[in-house]
Each structure stands twice: as structure tokens, then as C-alpha cells.
Design a protein that fits this description.
The complex is a heterodimer of chains A (274) and B (150). By secondary structure, chain A is an all-alpha fold. The longest helix of chain A has 35 residues, at 228-262. Chain A contains ten helices and no strands. Helices cover 73% and strands 0% of the residues of chain A. Chain A has two domains: 8-176, NADH-ubiquinone/plastoquinone oxidoreductase chain 6, subunit NuoJ (Four Helix Bundle (Hemerythrin (Met), subunit A), Up-down Bundle), CATH 1.20.120.1200; 215-273. Chain A is flat and about 70 Å long. Chain B has a domain at 7-98: Helix Hairpins (Orthogonal Bundle). In chain B, 54% of the residues lie in helices and 0% in strands. In chain B, helix 1 (7-30) runs antiparallel to helix 2 (34-59) and helix 2 runs antiparallel to helix 3. The longest helix of chain B is centred in the middle third of the chain and has 31 residues, at 63-93. The chains are: A mainly alpha (274), B mainly alpha (150).
């Protein structure tokens, strides 16, 4: 494959426009207490413009089919991620986040991570997100709460996020297939030799994923071979989190009981709980 | 021709990861609902996962996959512990508001002041219904009403 030289003169204005459109779009879309529909439409349009600019700065993949699939799943992931953080209602935010997880799982599948794509759906959308929804249904008042209709410093936060995104995109665009002096992995060293022999504009006809063959079995072998100690540590971490969660719950209930029995106000109850 | 590494795929996937990370950052900075803040944090983890898998694909190495599995583990632990804290905070204050705990802020940070918000006209949602068939059951007066909004 060929390393496309990054041209800052060609992509720079496009990238700057994308960053500016992202700032304006997020600033208009984030909850600001006013709930004006026209501003949100304008924000959505600007967000779509920013997305189009980011797509235009993206690199062409090899085949049209792969490109279309990657575009669709990444658009689903990104658009629903944006909808997650700008939704007024936290329940809608959680459901948008589930859709974003589906898009992320699709991106992972395109990248050849079969196990992780399915694990993202099962662990995140199946377990973690349902737990979030449980808490929301327990704790959410009917209607929109006032604190869901405002946000802290929407303009500065949108500026920070968009500038971070611009800097990251710039450095991603400057990546090249050249050999890095810091780490000469064997796969890189062989690839460098091949890269110089490739014609300058040849499309990537067949990109073979070396991890695709017998994927899950080899991933399990890697996990339980080289990273066995880390797996044990992760198991201990899960156990500690489980015990910690139960301990906090029971302690909190004891504090509530103490508050209820002493009936001298919350401060006295908190002292009694200690 | 090199048939192993794909730089365009790496760059596109890294861009998707960067967008997810930045959106999560904006979300966790701005939103005041504790649950939405946690959703934004999970979104940042998703962006990191996409980037790690993209690098793993590029190098033909298992390290990124293994790291993402540990990210999933830590995210599950984090969600369990954090949701317990959120529930405790809710049972103390009755709100899922981060600003309800602003007495814990630094001394030089300004206070979050809530202004009066304009009232929103809540149009009752119209849910799709099936055509009634058979005998209409008697209405139960004591049945709790359905929430109009979530």
C-alpha cells in the first residue's frame, strides 16, 4: 500500500472549518435552558457539515464495499454519540448511547475484532447500559429536571473538545507508513520493504488481516498465555468492586437507619453513622 | 505489495475514535446529570477501544485486543461502584444533579447558580394504539397514571 503524503495546504482549511463547525454545532445543540427549536436545527445542520468535512478529510479504503460499510457504521456511532450528549432527557441519552455502541461494535467488526465487537454488545449494551437504565428509572423524576435543561459552560467545553479533535485529526493525518525509529517490530520491518516497492498510487487490492484466521481461539491463547497474571489481577479487581459496591450499599442503609432513629436532622445522623 | 498493513483504515478508525473521545469529553464537562456524565465517560472508553483495536489491526499484534478486554473489565467495575455512589447521592439529595454536591468544590471555584428556566409547554405524547376489540374492560380508578415524559 502507499503512504499518502499529508498535505496541510489542502486539508488544513477543511480541518479548520470542521473544527469551527463542530464548536458552533455543539454550542447550539447542548442544553442551554432556552429550548429554541430553530437553534437546534441550525446546530444539527452545522454538525452534519462538520461530519461531511471529516469524511472529506478521511482516507479512501481499498474496496467500495468496505468503504461503504465503514462509513455507515462509523456514522451511526458518531451521530448517536453526539445525540447522547445533547439529549435533554437522560433516558433518551442512554438509548442513543446503546445505538452508538452498536455502531462502535460495527467499527470493531470492520477492523477484524470479532470477539470484541460481540463483547461490546453483550457487556456494554447488555449489562452496563441496562444497569444505567435501571438507575435512571429508579431515580428520574417525571418530566425534564431543571438540571437536565442547562449545562456547564457549553461554549468553552465545545471549544475544548473541538480543538482536541482538530489536533488529534492533524496528527492522525500526518501518520505515515515509514519505519519508526523507536520500535522496530518485525511486522513493521517487513512492511517497510514492501512499501517502497509499491507504486505511488496503487489502490490496496487485498488487505489481509493477519489476526483474522482462527481469531477467537488465538485471542484466548494470547490472553491466557502471555497475559495470565493480568487476567488474574482483573478477576481480583472484579471481586473487589463487587464487595466494595455491596459494602457501600449496606453502609449507606445503616446511615439512613441511624438518621431515621435519631431524628435529629441529617448532620446528627451522619455523625451517628460514623 | 504489502498485504498486511492498511494505513487508510488505521487513520479512519483513529479519526472515529478521536471523535468519540472528544464528544465524551464535551459531555462529561458540560452535562450536570450524573448518569449522563457516566455515559460520556463510557463513550470516551469506547473511543479508546476503537483506537487500540485499530493499532492492533495495523501492527498485526494482539496487544490492543487484550488491552480492550481489560478496558471492558475496568468499565464494568467502574459502572458497578459508580452507580452505587450515584444511588446513595440520589437518596440523600433526591436529585441526580452534580451541582447538588457543589459544597465539595474547591474554595476558588464559583458557585453554580440556577436561574429560573422558562416553562416548556409539554405536549402529551400520543402512543400508537391498536384497534379495540372485544368487550372494553372496566377502567380501574386506582391504577397509577402512566408517566407522560421520561
Amino acid at each position: 500500500m502507499t503512504p499518502l503524503p499529508f498535505d496541510p495546504l489542502a486539508s488544513g482549511p477543511l480541518l479548520a472549518g470542521a473544527v469551527l463547525a463542530t464548536v458552533a454545532s455543539l454550542w447550539l445543540l447542548l442544553p442551554n435552558g432556552r429550548d429554541t427549536t430553530s437553534a437546534r436545527w441550525l446546530g444539527a445542520l452545522l454538525g452534519l457539515a462538520a461530519l461531511a468535512a471529516f469524511i472529506a478529510t478521511g482516507r479512501r479504503l481499498g474496496g467500495l464495499g468496505e468503504e461503504a460499510v465503514f462509513l455507515i457504521v462509523s456514522l451511526v456511532a458518531v451521530i448517536s454519540a453526539a445525540a447522547t450528549i445533547v439529549s435533554r432527557s437522560p433516558v433518551y441519552a442512554a438509548i442513543w448511547f446503546a445505538l452508538s455502541l452498536a455502531g462502535v461494535a460495527g467499527v470493531l467488526l470492520v477492523l477484524g475484532a470479532q470477539f470484541l465487537g460481540v463483547a461490546t454488545i453483550v457487556v456494554y449494551a447488555g449489562a452496563i447500559l441496562v444497569m444505567f437504565l435501571f438507575v435512571l428509572m429508579l431515580a428520574q423524576p417525571a418530566g425534564l429536571a431543571p438540571y437536565d435543561r442547562v449545562s456547564n459552560e457549553p461554549f468553552l467545553s465545545a471549544l475544548a473538545g473541538a480543538v482536541l479533535l482538530g489536533v488529534l485529526s492533524l496528527s492522525i493525518g500526518r501518520l505515515s507508513a515509514g519505519p519508526a525509529s523507536c520500535c522496530d517490530l518485525p511486522t513493521r520491518a517487513t512492511a517497510t520493504v514492501d512499501t517502497t516497492a509499491a507504486p505511488a498510487t496503487a489502490p490496496v487490492a487485498t488487505v489481509v488481516d493477519p489476526l483474522a484466521e482462527n481469531h477467537v481461539a488465538r485471542l484466548g491463547g494470547e490472553l491466557f498465555g502471555r497475559h495470565l497474571v493480568a487476567v488474574e489481577a482483573a478477576g481480583v479487581l472484579l471481586l473487589v468492586a463487587l464487595i466494595g459496591a455491596i459494602a457501600v450499599v449496606s453502609r449507606g442503609e445503616a446511615a439512613h437507619a441511624a438518621e431515621a432513629t435519631t431524628a435529629k436532622g441529617p448532620a446528627a445522623g451522619r455523625i451517628a453513622a460514623r | 505489495m504489502n498485504t498486511m498493513q492498511s494505513l487508510p483504515l488505521l487513520q479512519n478508525a483513529l479519526t472515529v475514535g478521536a471523535i468519540l473521545f472528544s464528544l465524551g469529553l464535551v459531555g462529561i464537562l458540560t452535562r450536570r446529570n450524573l448518569i449522563v456524565m457516566f455515559l460520556a465517560a463510557e463513550m470516551m472508553l469506547q473511543g479508546i477501544s476503537v483506537s487500540l483495536v485499530a493499532w492492533s489491526r495495523y501492527h498485526g499484534d494482539w496487544g490492543g485486543h487484550v488491552l480492550v478486554i481489560f478496558v471492558l473489565t475496568v468499565a464494568a467495575c467502574e459502572a458497578a461502584v459508580a452507580l452505587v455512589f450515584v444511588l446513595q447521592a440520589f437518596s440523600r439529595t433526591g436529585r441526580l444533579d452534580a451541582a447538588a454536591w457543589q459544597s465539595l468544590r474547591e474554595a476558588n471555584v464559583g458557585r453554580t447558580i440556577d436561574h429560573e428556566l422558562p416553562a416548556i409547554d409539554t405536549v402529551p405524547l400520543r402512543f400508537p394504539t391498536l384497534t379495540p376489540a372485544g368487550v372494553l374492560p372496566p377502567a380501574d380508578e386506582n391504577e397509577p397514571l402512566q408517566r407522560e415524559h421520561v
